[in-house]
Amino acid sequence: MNVLFCGPGDQATAYGPALKKWSAELEAPFDLFTNAADITPADVDVLIANPNADVADFGVYSGAKLIQSIWAGMEVFLGNPTLPTEPTLCRMVEPGLTEGMTDYICGHVMRYHLGIDNHIADSANRVWNAVAPPLARDRKVAVLGLGQLGMDAASMLKTLRFDVAGWSRSEKAGLPYPTYHGRDGLNEILKRSEIVVTILPNTAETMHVMNAETFSLLPDGATIINPGRGSLIDDAALLSALDVGKLSHATLDVFDTEPLPKDHPFWARPDITITPHIAAETRTDGAAKVAVEQIRRLQKGEPLHYIVNRTAGY
Ligand code: NDP
Ligand code: OXD
Fold it and tell me: pLDDT by residue (tens digit) across 268-286?
């Protein structure tokens, strides 16, 4: 079996040894290529790819059986007109990505919950403002997106005793917190939520899910944390919601254009915290293990994991 790794820059330098290590450990032998020029495209069976890889034409790999992304978000692949329809397309799910995202979400929820910024400002101004925060159990948090990442974060927020609720496309049952789905469910969850986390994929349906209308449903002074994708938020509506106090603060990790252009209005706002798409990063060793396990499954005729629904877009 021929496996081609495609990543930007020198990413293959790290992935090569990790893929070989897991190939031996999982007893899934294959020939690994880290330079596309070294193999005839028609001979590639599996492509392990970073969406930022410099692949001019995925169409030449139409004979591949699997394209395994090393990212969770699939919109770059799905938006590439050369992507062949034949190979099974799989997204990345690995422990480092999941744990990193949960750390990010819980950290920023705690920042808002405890009013940490107010205390930093009060300290700088020598102000003794003895206002204690409510308990986490009295803080209503919404997690929009209950997939691999949102589900783990919501579960940790629940463990931290937050009054968490979740929203997804399909109905969920049996979770230890209230769940909502569909458009009506979105309206309901937003009405109750002081802190909103958007951890949804970029699809046609999720485009500007947070817009003037949905921001208006939130209680005054709500906060939003977006580690999902920039497309989830209508930027102009976000700025208006901050201007009128509907929102008191936003933390954004992802943007329509990345890096965020130097002249973007978000940079000038003290009520927006910008993090540079670092909420969660695929860890090389964990991702290599997942990719090799997929190859092993392919070799043994076992079902693949994390298959993308190309119609739904995630
Ligand atoms: P999953 O595919 O596991 O989960 C997606 C979730 O979104 C599911 O719960 C799905 O609902 C829900 N969803 C999708 N469409 C809709 C819709 N129209 N209405 C309501 N809910 C919807 O994805 P992951 O959890 O693995 O990743 C989520 C996203 O996080 C990625 O697509 C990527 O954009 C982003 N990401 C950001 C990173 C960063 O560093 N900033 C790092 C990694 C990922 P259902 O359960 O019903 O299918
Ligand atoms: C991803 C990301 O999708 O890092 O994996 O955003």
Answer: 999 999 999 999 999 999 9
Domain co-membership, 89 together with 159: no
101 and 19 belong to one structural domain: no
Strand order through the sheet with 31-33: 31-33, 2-6, 46-49, 66-69, 88-90
Please identify which residue in the block is written with the tokens 């169409």.
59
Report how far residue 28's alpha carbon sits from residue 300's, in angstroms, rounded to the nearest whole number.
9
- 184-230, pLDDT tens digit by residue? 999 999 999 999 999 999 999 999 999 999 999 999 999 999 999 99
**Ligand 1, CB cutoff 6 Å, lining residues:** 72-73, 97, 145-150, 167-170, 199-203, 205-206, 227-229, 253-254, 277, 279-280, 314
Specify whether 21 is located in the same domain as 109.
no
pTM: 0.97
Domain count, the chain: 2
Question: What's the token pair of residue 26?
Answer: 């999982």
Domain range for residue 24? 2-94+282-300
Nearest ligand to the C-alpha atom of residue 99: 1
Model pLDDT for residues 68-109, shown as the tens digit of each residue: 999 999 999 999 999 999 999 999 999 999 999 999 999 999
